[in-house]
Design brief:
The protein starts with a helix and ends in an 11-residue tail after the last strand. By secondary structure, the protein is α+β, with helices and mostly antiparallel strands. A hairpin with a 7-residue loop joins strand 11 (407-410) and strand 12. The protein is extended and about 90 Å long. The chain has helices at 5-49, 65-74, 77-80, 86-108, 115-138, 146-155, 176-187, 192-199, 203-206, 228-234, 268-299, 305-312, 318-326, 331-344, 351-364, 369-382, 389-398; strands at 54-58, 61-64, 161-162, 165-173, 211-216, 220-221, 225-226, 242-248, 251-261, 264-265, 407-410, 418-421. Among the domains are: 54-108; 164-262, Chitinase A, domain 3, CATH 3.10.50; 318-421, Tetratricopeptide repeat domain (Serine Threonine Protein Phosphatase 5, Tetratricopeptide repeat), CATH 1.25.40. Residues 1-35, 409-417 and 421-432 have low confidence and may be disordered.
Length: 432
């Protein structure tokens, strides 16, 4: 019996299924191999993208690839390309390691705990915070526009006025006779450059056909300096003409005017950038003041004028006054400052030293031994138990001779020093 059409369809489907089942092992093996290769590739990519990969260990700390990447981003873009090559990345890593080594060492040695370092860190933090905030706040200040610059230009024409000027050349001679001879030849049409070479005594401009440059009515005439009379006379000469002779402190001059430039105003386009900068600066200052006033208002800033006045007008103490006297220049000024200290602080610990310095400056700098003796004797009378009493007595006895004093000097004055007794000096009195 021949199979019906229905059975033939079922048989064909069975054959297809059989082929599919028969082909599964081969395809499954290929798929498994591909899956293993895909996993390996993904693992390699994951390792490459792992930003926490440890590159260097420093005790308990590490340097990862992410650390290097972040540091690379901190480098200015113009210099960043240097560190994108393998050699560059290696160099950058070595720098980071070196930096980390010293940072860890400094922290271990307690550098961060030092008051001076903490003060510097606090100062830098303060400056960074203020600068960052102000930069952001000031960015809200709109830049001036071209139309505003034009308005300013129209309202201030005098700021951009160019004064009248003439371009000059000259022949400088020692005598009026020579000048008149040169003028006559120039007016007759002879070559100007040759006349300069022949007659001019100005060695600076002689090689440049006598060029003096551009001169305005204020009288500044090139290498001749300020010559207002000569400049004013030049304005009476037409372009291309010669005139003179004119007398100055340099001699006699025959002048040739190359060009005459009438007074003018600089075009807006040439001064526009300058005006924009000027307006921007003014607006920036005004905007800053408004920001500051607003911030002060919000914070409730209330100065105590009485306390401020007491603070700013407070007197320096004796030691500060002594230091200020040291920093003065001329001997007479230092003497006056030391005298003022002695009068204002008669019982301070530095007053005997100030009294000694009066005598010492008189003796060693001014060679006024009479005034020096008065100062030293005043020290002996008022401060007999001072450690400088012995040195003062020695100076009274020996300063007029060439004998060197038997005491050393220690830094105390910008131009002179304060002697200190050395050993047993006759007449010295030790402190109890």
């Amino acid at each position: 019996m021949r199979p019906s059409g229905h059975h033939r369809v079922l048989a064909a489907l069975a054959a297809v299924l059989l082929l599919a089942v028969a082909g599964q092992p081969a395809r499954g093996a290929a798929a498994a191999k591909g899956a293993r290769a895909g996993k390996a590739g993904k693992a390699a990519a994951a390792r490459a993208a792992d930003t926490s990969q440890v590159l260097v260990r420093l005790g308990s700390e590490t340097i990862t690839s992410e650390d290097v990447r972040k540091r690379l981003e901190e480098i200015p873009e113009t210099a960043r390309q240097t560190f994108t090559t393998p050699a560059g990345r290696q160099q950058l890593l070595e720098r980071i390691v070196e930096e980390r080594v010293w940072l860890m060492t400094a922290l271990r040695e307690g550098v961060a705990e030092r008051p001076q370092v903490q003060q510097q860190l606090a100062q830098q933090r303060r400056e960074i915070l203020i600068r960052t905030y102000l930069n952001e706040a000031m960015s809200a200040n709109p830049a001036p526009t071209d139309s505003q610059a034009r308005v300013y230009y129209d309202e201030h024409p005098g700021d951009y006025r160019v004064p009248a000027s003439v371009s000059l050349r000259h022949i400088q001679t020692k005598t009026e006779v020579q000048a008149r001879q040169a003028l006559k030849l120039a007016q007759s049409g002879q070559d100007w450059a040759k006349l300069v070479q022949k007659f001019s005594a100005d060695s600076v401009t002689r090689t440049q056909a006598g060029a003096l440059g551009t001169v305005t009515r204020d009288g500044l005439v090139g290498v001749l300096g300020r010559q207002p009379a000569l400049a004013e006379s030049a304005f009476a000469i037409a372009a291309g003409k010669v005139g003179g002779p004119f007398k100055t402190d340099r001699g006699w001059h025959v002048v040739k005017v190359d060009e005459v430039h009438p007074e003018s105003t600089r075009p807006f386009e040439t001064v526009r950038p300058m005006i924009l900068r000027q307006l921007g600066s003014q607006r920036g200052q005004e905007f800053y003041r408004k920001l500051l006033e607003e911030a002060r208002r919000k914070l409730g800033v209330t100065p105590d004028s009485a306390a401020i006045k007491r603070f700013v007008t407070q007197k320096r103490d004796a030691r500060e006054t002594f230091k200020a006297a040291q920093e003065l220049g001329p001997p007479t000024e230092r003497i006056a400052a030391y005298r003022a200290l002695v009068a204002e602080y008669p019982d301070s610990e530095v007053t005997p030293q100030a009294q000694f310095m009066i005598g010492f400056i008189y003796s060693e700098e001014l060679k006024n031994y009479d005034e020096a003796e008065k100062a030293f004797r005043e020290l002996l009378e008022r401060y007999p138990r001072s450690e400088l009493a012995g040195s003062a007595q020695w100076m009274v006895d020996h300063m007029r001779s060439q004998e060197a004093p038997p005491f050393e000097v220690s830094e105390a004055d910008s131009s002179a020093t304060t002697p200190r007794p050395q050993g047993n000096v006759k007449g010295s009195t030790e402190k109890p």
